[in-house]
Amino acid sequence: MNTDYLAFEGVDGSGKTSYIEALSSHLEKKSINFKIVREPGGSKLGEGIRDLLLSHEYTVEPLTEALLFSANRANLISEIIKPSIENGIKIISDRSAYSSVAYQGVGRGLGFDKIYEINDVAVDGYWPEKVILLDIDPEVSLKRQKINDRIGSSELDFFKKVREGYLQLSEKFNENFLVIDATLDLTDNLKTIYKWLELD
Ligand code: TYD
């Protein structure tokens, strides 16, 4: 595999879980040492922050939301991601700092560049090297999967902006991003992904 830190990204309901499961079995077969993490969450403190972020119990205004996500990320990176990579363990992440640029920067309208900068501080040099963007019209993905948490239950218009944010990211960082049409067949898409990761 040609990367130490791979992230899957996409709007809610884009199917990240199925891709991560398939990739895991493929990596196991190849005896590649890897660890799966998820954001928000991923560490003990992170799981606590995840509850604050996703529960309907709290009112979290956009800037606080962005800072909580980045605090979760700083902790996850220093506690798990950085030491794993230093020990030769590859990281497969369900979401990453790029989620914040799409969701908080573009979706919430805090600004693409501003949220990129905040996260540049939080990740301390550890942006994912490769990103697989599962691109899908949110109108389709939200029908596939009903999400009830505070962010997942947002309006369709919010997710449309998030998708635009992701597409902007994939253009700006086109050397790091592979954009997959998430409405196409999983097996065919996996072939494209394995080729891109030099895992075929
Ligand atoms: P989760 O249950 O992990 O959703 P999913 O299965 O779609 O990944 O909940 C994460 C929610 O938080 C999801 O709606 C995306 C959102 N999110 C942000 O808004 N900003 C971020 O930086 C991250 C990591 C997630």
Strand content: 5-15%
Q: H/E order of the elements? A: EHEHHEHHEHHEH
Counting structural domains, the number is 1
The CATH superfamily is P-loop containing nucleotide triphosphate hydrolases
Terminal Cα separation, in Å? 9 Å
Strand order of the largest sheet: 2-3-1-4-5
Name the shape in a single word. Answer: globular
What is the mean pLDDT? Answer: 97
Helical content stands at 40-55%
Q: Assign the CATH class.
A: Alpha Beta
Tell me what the structure shows.
The chain is built from 8 helices and 5 strands, in the order E-H-E-H-H-E-H-H-E-H-H-E-H. The protein has a single domain, classed as Rossmann fold. Helix 2 (44-54) runs antiparallel to helix 3 (62-86), helix 3 (62-86) runs antiparallel to helix 4 and helix 4 (97-107) runs antiparallel to helix 5 (112-123). It has 200 residues and is of the alpha/beta class. The model has no long low-confidence stretch (mean pLDDT 97). Strands 2-3-1-4-5 form a 5-stranded parallel β-sheet, sandwiched between helices. Residues 12, 39-40, 54, 69, 94-95, 99-100, 103-104, 149, 151-152 line the site of thymidine-5'-diphosphate.
Q: Main traits of this protein?
A:
binds thymidine-5'-diphosphate, Rossmann fold, 200 residues, globular, alpha/beta
Entry summary:
The chain has 200 residues and is α/β, with parallel strands linked by helices. It has one domain: Rossmann fold (3-Layer(aba) Sandwich), CATH 3.40.50.300.
Secondary structure elements and pairings:
Blueprint: E1 5-9, H1 16-29, E2 34-38, H2 44-54, H3 62-86, E3 90-94, H4 97-107, H5 112-123, E4 130-135, H6 138-144, H7 156-172, E5 177-181, H8 186-196
Parallel strand pairs: 1-3, 1-4, 2-3, 4-5
Helix pairs in contact: 2-3, 3-4, 3-5, 4-5, 4-7
This protein binds thymidine-5'-diphosphate.
Residues 12, 39-40, 54, 69, 94-95, 99-100, 103-104, 149, 151-152 line the site of thymidine-5'-diphosphate (TYD).
